[in-house]
Amino acid sequence: MNRRVRYANDAGERFVGGDTMDVRIDGDHDDDTIRAIVTALSQHLGKQVRVVETDGAGTGNAEEGAILTDREQRLREEIEDLLSGGPGRGHEKIEALGKLFVRERMETVFDEIAYEDGTFAGYAADDRTPADGLIAGVGEIDGRDVFFTANDYTVKAGSLGAQGIEKEIRLAERAVTARAPIVRLIDSTGARLTPGERDESDSHAGRYVGGRSFFNQCIHSGQIPQIGVLYGPNIAGSAYTPVFCDFLIMVEGISGMAIASPRIVREMTGEDVDMEALGGPEVHATESGSADLVVPDEETAARKVRDLLSYLPQDYRSPLPEEPTREPDRNPGGLDAVIPDEPNASYDVHAVIDRLADGDSFLELKPRFAPEIVTGFARIDGRPVGIVANQPSRVSGAIFPDSAEKAAGFVWKCDAFGIPLVYLCDTPGFMIGSQVEKEGVLQKGRKFIYATSNAQVPKFCVVTRKAYGAGIYAMCGPSFDPDATLALPAAELAVMGPDAAVSAMFSRQIEDIDDPEEREAFVEARKEEYRKDIRKQASSMQVDELVPAGDLRDQLARRIDSYRDKRRIDRDRHHGTVLF
């Protein structure tokens, strides 16, 4: 054993009997050595030195010299009481709702809690409101510091009190200073309306109250990742917190969000609707597109928080987290067989992604909203990428208003946090017709093209098959400053597809042919003439490289590596005028 001389007092050195000092000498030494050490110390310090026997290795001063005073004991007991949350009826309520107590919830999300602030917030209030119903602090996830807030539903149903809002504001501002992500575990019924909670002159519009937290979320957007997990029916003010997060996870059966409660909706509009139909997970996963992920339980929600963080940096200037390379789920060499020759034949783009991305790395976001376009994070050769892919198995991969907005938001987030983008283009272009015009196909379509145009992360466009009309614009075609436009053997770039082109150019001739078989033969011959040859397009440098499909994964990995230090360009303006 190694022997170390340790001193004992309140700070590691305890002097006994005035001029006598006790020492402990750890380890194996003979008597002569010990005597020499003690003599030298005594002469050096001018004190009598006495050896304290020990039965083993030194234990440090963790126990020795520790004195727990009555006042410290009282404080510790008060803290323990506050950590237990609200009254018994509050705990009974969350149990009936099938929810975890907030501190159990925190244990599922974090490896450990480093510290908390504001445990005594609201302590002096007339009502018992531990931590004022909002826990705030810093936790650790996979070795990373993550700031967090967590509503305690056992305290007045997680409602937002004045001190709870103050904690949220302080935590968000400190997270930006610390350059660390925020995870918000949201389970709140909104602003606390208890009489006497605020001064008569106070309102939600004051400079440093509720509105300030939303202001912070807005100005911090793109600086640090903000992840929200929704565990309850969040109404009014508390419903804004989740939608201002970069990513939102909703838990089935217990979560929801809406501008007003079903009761208020019924009283103000006459509409009779329950919370699930008004703003439950199904609504926000399929109709509004507000939920990035819907999960069956709290444990899955915790795993998804970790999954999201594994692709995101600490802040926008920090490096992306990398992992060891994993082989794809499916053989990259089988990619070309996945893609049909016929431009309108259906296939699932996930079969392409499975052959490009590292195994088990694709995390799809908003999978049930506008599924004609697929968005999500993956890794290629261990590095995070954002994938934007047309889905030919849904309406041939056409771009609708909702899918344009979904893709635009995803591209914008990837650009904010420095995540390279891979576009997999197989689309007939933007959908046409009176219905999509009413839904704003041009207005929302421009967002997609705008986001692609302004994104300055490494961008790679892969034309897997058809690239018709303005669809190739949104999908980062040659005019939109990609770092490479790659094409597979089935690729074809054209103003429009053969069907539309032949119909537009030969409509009168087709009408004049009476015989059905002759008419069909004429149409097929004109379509074949119209189809573009990707080799000729590669010859004229419309694409950077025509790539054998089996080599695409390796090509992307090498190109992503080449652009890992890509520079951003400051443009001479305040900001663009297209709003997301």
Provide the descriptors you would attach to this structure in a database record.
580 residues, single chain, 21 strands, disordered N terminus, 4 domains, eight-stranded mixed beta sheet, 21 helices, 2-enoyl-CoA Hydratase, Chain A, domain 1, 36% helix, seven-stranded mixed beta sheet, alpha/beta
Radius of gyration, taken over Cα atoms and rounded to an integer in Å:
32 Å
> How helix-rich are the residues, as a percent range?
25-40%
Question: CATH topology of the largest domain, which one?
Answer: 2-enoyl-CoA Hydratase, Chain A, domain 1
**At the fourth CATH level, what is the homologous superfamily of the largest domain?**
2-enoyl-CoA Hydratase, Chain A, domain 1
Q: How many strand segments?
A: 21
Report on this structure.
There is one protein chain. Helices cover 36% and strands 18% of the residues. The chain has 580 residues and is α/β, with parallel strands linked by helices. It has four domains: 5-51, no CATH class; 83-309, 2-enoyl-CoA Hydratase, Chain A, domain 1 (Alpha-Beta Complex); 332-491 and 543-562, Alpha-Beta Complex (2-enoyl-CoA Hydratase, Chain A, domain 1); 496-532. Strands 14, 15, 16, 17, 18, 19, 20 and 21 form an eight-stranded mixed beta sheet that branches. A seven-stranded mixed beta sheet has the order 5-6-7-8-9-11-13, sandwiched between helices. Strands 1, 2, 3 and 4 form a four-stranded mixed beta sheet that branches. Strand 2 and strand 3 form a beta hairpin. Helix 5 (162-178) runs parallel beside helix 6 (210-220), helix 14 runs parallel beside helix 16 and helix 18 (498-512) runs antiparallel to helix 19 (516-530). The radius of gyration is 32 Å and the shape is globular. Residues 1-18 have low confidence and may be disordered.
